[in-house]
Amino acid sequence: MADIIQLLPDHVANQIAAGEVVQRPASVVKELLENAIDARATIIKLVVKDGGRTLIQVIDNGTGMSHTDARFCFERHATSKITSADDLFQINTKGFRGEALASIAAIAHVELNTREGQAELGTAIKIEGGTVASQEFTAVPEGTSISVKHLFFNIPARRNFLKSQQVELRHITDEFHRVALAHPDIEFHFFHNGSELFHLPPASLKKRIVGIFGGKTKEKLVPVEEETEVVKLHGFICKPEYAKKSRGEQYFFVNNRYIKSPYLHHAVVSAFEGLLRADTHPGYFLYLEVDPSSIDVNIHPTKTEIKFDDEHTIYAILRSAIKHSLGQFNIAPVLDFDQ
Length: 339
Ligand code: ADP
Ligand code: MG
What we know:
This protein is an alpha+beta fold. It is built from nine helices and 15 strands.
């Protein structure tokens, strides 16, 4: 029998990986915003056109990249964030898989402008169809700007699967909220079709929540705080009378990463027991800090699910901290919890 196994060419492998990493425009937004944060940006601007179909651009004032790195960042498994498997258990950055830019460049047209602080000239690169169309030295601001155009240009099935501009914009806005909530200390701008939807200056967590969800949110929030050996917890829950029919504002962050956790959600809901009207869902903004070696973030390509070593203890601590906050609120509902 003849040997029939071949290694897939890079551009095919990247396109396959992109299927997992980039489900829709919002996935691109998430990856680019996270890269800007990892680059220690203090001001991040998101510019979107047509629900992300024609343009998604993220401009940051972070570290920028060298001329070589500006090319290299589009290679698969190219990352500056980890160097060994051991590092997987000490993750302090959003990224570490080195997959996002390679995946995005395989299914869209990408333009990167970047300059490191000390460099006189920066770099401009254009990638089309996974290959470099041009690369030159050029005068650009310090930091990085990445534009992603014509998403899924070479995957008609994915392109056709895209929903209306409003639906895609809603997904993008959800991603934007998560990132902006995870980093109240960073300034964000968000433009869609030329109008500014959000301008969020650096703020306390409470001000950031209000900046996103509006002034009325302020009176809904009850602070939660707890510190144990296993987990440090802070954030806010919404008073039970503001619980909604639809699942609205429910956010968990672990080490500043937005995550989904049905198990921890259950801990929150069970702390509200007896306080909610039927079929309503409490809002919450809860931030957990744990030792990075006690969690595994590498169980899903989008990293929105993580595994805790000691899930049961965290459940119990979370539940009791929320009960405590609710108790305080019930006893003294008129106290001002301003922080
Ligand atoms: P990862 O974030 O997992 O490392 P990416 O494909 O998202 O993988 O990015 C690859 C590399 O490109 C990053 O490790 C980083 O060194 C560099 N990079 C990407 N975006 C930026 C940015 N906005 N500013 C500076 N460097 C960046
Ligand atoms: Mg990344």
